[in-house]
Write a structure and sequence with these properties.
Blueprint (H helix, E strand, L loop, with lengths): L1 E4 L5 H12 L3 E3 L19 H11 L5 E3 L3 H4 L8 E5 L2 H10 L4 H13 L1 H10 L4 E5 L5 H17 L20 H8 L10
Parallel strand pairs: 1-3, 1-4, 2-3, 4-5
Helix pairs in contact: 1-7, 4-5
């Protein structure tokens, strides 16, 4: 199974908890990237084919693979269930700023979350029936991990993943004016959360 999400959505906190609950190992895709240390300070060029080869060489049966590069490295046949972590963009902006991300990286990641870049990539790569979204905005890592674990077990019991119940998260609905979008994407200040 895979856990994916824009930086700041909770992958590093949640994926190991899911793996522990399922009794399997976990691996962060980024840990397999040479020179990944200090990535927030500089860009690292990634070759998805080489990264996939590293992942396959170190793969353990049933492990939880996580990272924002998941749809670029893992193939459909490798992941029967993909948990996509989402976070309301104004909250994500605060999280990334608190981590010390530069303004340009904050804006890039907030924009990606706002328009669902990883949702699109995951659905295209794995199919909508395998992708499940989880809103991490106000939930603790344990709460989200418990929800994912339950869904993984239910999907396994039913012979496959059932897809996203009730439709996909669409953050753009909360940013329905130019003023709200400008406030969200402006450097140096935090916008009010969407309502």
């Amino acid at each position: 199974m895979g856990v994916c999400g824009t930086p700041g959505t909770g992958k590093k906190s949640i994926a190991p908890l899911v793996a522990a609950s399922l009794g399997v190992p976990s691996v962060a895709i980024n840990s397999l990237v040479p020179g990944a240390e200090g990535r927030r300070k500089r860009e690292v060029e990634v070759d998805p084919a080489k990264l996939r080869a590293r992942l396959l060489a170190s793969a353990k049966p049933g492990e939880v693979v996580y990272g924002h590069l998941l749809p670029h490295v893992v193939r459909k046949e490798d992941a029967g269930f993909v948990a996509l972590l989402r976070c309301e963009p104004s909250v994500l902006k605060k999280r990334l700023k608190a981590r010390g991300y530069e303004d340009a990286k904050v804006k890039e990641n907030v924009e990606a979350e706002l328009i669902g870049v990883l949702l699109d990539e995951c659905v295209e790569r794995f199919g909508g029936e395998r992708v499940h979204e989880y809103d991490t905005t106000d939930a603790t890592p344990r709460q989200v991990a418990s929800e994912i674990t339950l869904d993984v077990r239910l999907a396994a019991g039913s012979g496959g993943a059932a897809g996203q119940p009730g439709g996909w998260i669409d953050w753009t609905l909360g940013y329905d004016s130019p003023a709200k979008l400008r406030a969200l994407l402006a450097a140096g200040k935090d916008p009010p959360a969407s309502t």
